[in-house]
């Protein structure tokens, strides 16, 4: 069977499943492989549960004429997604960056959906499987697709760009994330910039933060750039008003009062405003969209519980995002501030140095009630309370309950610090 013929089958059965626990009637099951599983072994089960076809790459698992054998299931999924993207008259906006990708994607989608039929990456399904699945959710009514791209090593963004073939792109920032895979901050800049490299080489449009020195340098001679800035009048000007705790910005004399905390979310809002203006969304609709967006999934959420005000930013953490969160927390008007910080992962040889820097920053900013959680933080030199594991934190707080106040909880996903909410009691 050719890729074109598979695409025709997909149009007749436009739902893709990669997990037999989530099979829907008449879907197409792609038998992907992982470190601990072989999807080929589940092809027969997928068909019995109602899948119309199963795409496999091991002939011995062909138990039905509805098992279609290709050379490589993952590559077939990626090629099908790229073909499908090309057959639809849809504008694709790709975005990547070290911090704020998912929030920015949600904000852009919120704004553009005021005028257009949009689809966007679900959650943070932004890798070599998630990007194809997003593209395959495009249908004949889709006008704009917003595709988030994640990476933890070089050439990954370049590869995803070739699959998605974006018409527009935006990089949120370049920060100290995935240093282990990228080999340092210069590697991060080089890796994330692969999106701009792809767009420039294909003469496509680039959205940019005109206040970001790296982006300024990268795009200084490129004509097809659309930027925002707080000061440079060659770009669309947006003013930062405050973040105490919620971000307020001013656009064309109108204040937009968001439900996003932290000055670090200001450029994320600006990107959504910029794209809204570019695609002719009325400013009143842009304002409504941004003001109605409420963050979820442990991303800068504000939660009131048992007399505690909690800034829950426990979805992920790296040195850049943690530094920004600490500086924002310092500037917030609140009493009895407490920090609960968890280990930051994927920092490789820089892990010890970066954790020490965060502990030093917390001290420099004047925080006194600080809990550092995790095996890496446990090694730093600091006057703060150090706890080797989450269970140690639980024991500490159950033995010595905290006073009411305002808390910042931040750590990498693997730390799952949102569990702290379960035992914050007066």
What does this structure look like?
The chain has 426 residues and is α/β, with parallel strands linked by helices. The chain has three domains: 68 residues, Udp-n-acetylmuramoylalanyl-d-glutamate--2,6- Diaminopimelate Ligase, Chain: A, domain 1 (3-Layer(aba) Sandwich), CATH 3.40.1390.10; 205 residues, Mur-like, catalytic domain (UDP-N-acetylmuramoyl-L-alanine:D-glutamate ligase), CATH 3.40.1190; 123 residues, Mur ligase, C-terminal domain (Protein-Tyrosine Phosphatase, Chain A, Alpha-Beta Complex). It is built from 15 helices and 20 strands. A seven-stranded parallel β-sheet has the order 6-7-5-8-9-10-11, with helices on both faces. A hairpin with a 2-residue loop joins strand 13 and strand 14. Helix 4 runs parallel beside helix 11, helix 4 crosses helix 12 and helix 6 crosses helix 9. Its EC number is 6.3.2.10.
Helix content: 25-40%
Superfamily at the CATH H level of the largest domain? Mur-like, catalytic domain
Name of the CATH architecture of the largest domain? 3-Layer(aba) Sandwich
For the termini, the CA-CA separation is 65 Å
- How much strand content do the residues show? 15-25%
Overall strand count? 20
Nearest-integer average pLDDT: 94
Residue stretches low in confidence (pLDDT < 50, at least 5 long) are none
Strand order in the largest sheet: 6-7-5-8-9-10-11
* Fold-level CATH name of the largest domain: UDP-N-acetylmuramoyl-L-alanine:D-glutamate ligase
Query: Which class of secondary structure composition applies to the elements?
Result: alpha/beta
How many helices? Answer: 15
Reported for the largest beta sheet, the result is: 7 strands, parallel
Shape: globular
Under CATH at level 1, the class of the largest domain stands as Alpha Beta
The radius of gyration is 23 Å
């Amino acid at each position: 069977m050719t890729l074109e013929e598979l695409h025709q089958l997909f149009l007749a059965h436009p739902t893709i499943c990669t997990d037999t626990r989530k099979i829907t009637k008449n879907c197409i099951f792609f038998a992907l492989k992982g470190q601990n599983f072989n999807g080929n072994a589940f092809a027969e089960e997928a068909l019995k549960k109602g899948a119309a076809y199963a795409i496999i790459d091991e002939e011995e698992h062909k138990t039905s004429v509805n098992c279609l054998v290709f050379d490589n299931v993952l590559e077939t999924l990626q090629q099908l997604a790229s073909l499908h993207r090309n057959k639809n008259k849809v504008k694709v906006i790709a975005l990547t960056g070290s911090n704020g990708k998912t929030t920015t994607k949600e904000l852009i989608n919120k704004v553009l959906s005021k005028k257009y039929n949009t689809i966007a990456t679900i959650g943070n399904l932004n890798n070599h499987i998630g990007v194809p699945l997003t593209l395959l959710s495009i249908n004949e009514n889709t006008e704009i697709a917003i595709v988030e791209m994640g990476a933890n090593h070089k050439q990954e963004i370049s590869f995803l760009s070739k699959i998605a073939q974006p018409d527009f792109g935006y990089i949120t920032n370049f920060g100290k994330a995935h240093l282990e895979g990228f080999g340092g901050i210069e590697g991060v800049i080089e890796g994330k910039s692969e999106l701009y490299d792809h767009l420039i080489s294909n003469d496509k449009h680039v959205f940019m933060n005109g206040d970001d020195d790296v982006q300024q340098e990268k795009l200084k001679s490129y004509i097809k750039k659309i930027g925002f800035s707080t000061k440079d009048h060659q770009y669309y000007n947006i003013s930062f008003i405050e973040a105490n705790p919620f971000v307020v910005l001013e656009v064309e004399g109108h204040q937009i009062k968001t439900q996003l905390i932290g000055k670090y979310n200001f450029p994320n809002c600006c990107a959504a405003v910029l794209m809204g203006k570019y695609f002719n969304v009325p400013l009143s609709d842009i304002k409504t969209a941004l003001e109605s967006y409420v963050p979820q999934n442990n991303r800068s959420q504000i939660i009131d519980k048992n007399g505690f005000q909690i800034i829950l930013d426990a979805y992920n953490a790296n040195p850049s995002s943690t530094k920004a969160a600490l500086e924002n927390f310092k500037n917030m008007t609140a009493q009895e501030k407490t920090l609960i910080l968890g280990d930051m992962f994927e920092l490789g040889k820089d892990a010890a140095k970066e954790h020490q820097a965060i502990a030093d920053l917390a001290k420099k900013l004047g925080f006194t009630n600080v809990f550092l959680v995790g095996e890496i933080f446990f090694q730093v030199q600091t006057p703060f309370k150090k706890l080797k594991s989450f269970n140690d934190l639980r024991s500490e707080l159950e033995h010595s309950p905290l006073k009411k106040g305002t808390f910042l909880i931040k750590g990498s996903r693997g730390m799952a610090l949102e569990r702290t909410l379960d035992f914050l009691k007066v």
